[in-house]
Amino acid sequence: MQFFTQTDPMKRLRVRYILAAIILATLPCYLTGYLEAQWRMDQGPNPTPSLSATSTETLTITPTITGTTTETATSTPTLTTTSTVTFTPSFTPSNTATSSPTTAPSATATPSPSPSLTPSEKPTP
């Protein structure tokens, strides 16, 4: 159904009546809510009864002079011992010398024949 592209004026008029009826039917609900809110605002907050205790102390100092002096020495020895044992594992790596055989090529002197003069016969002319 397409309400907004209706070309029939009777159908459009019927939709208008339905929408107007819905608006008029909901107005009492809105007005009742508004009036209830206004009535609540005029009442103010309700006081809540609570119990409270009040205590008052009064200190009165009366100076009295007597000729008696008393001195009392009090000592309270207190012995407190606190011992804590803590185990802390540790690992210290150590360097260990390890020999491993290696072979390295070495230079070896090989005697080579030195050039020598060999006597030869010369043909005489």
Can you characterise this structure?
The structure is a single chain. With 125 residues, the protein is mainly α. Helices cover 28% and strands 0% of the residues. It contains 1 helix and no strands. The mean pLDDT is 77.
Output the keywords.
125 residues; mainly alpha; 0% strand; flat
Short synopsis of the structure:
The mean pLDDT is 77. The termini are far apart. With 125 residues, the protein is mainly α.
Count of helix runs: 1
Judging from the principal axes of the Cα atoms, what is the shape? flat
Average pLDDT works out at 77
Helix share, percent: 25-40%
Order of helices and strands: H
| Biggest pleated-sheet summary | none
CA-based gyration radius? 61 Å
Low-confidence stretches: none
Distance between the termini: 145 Å
SSE topology sketch:
Elements: H1 9-43
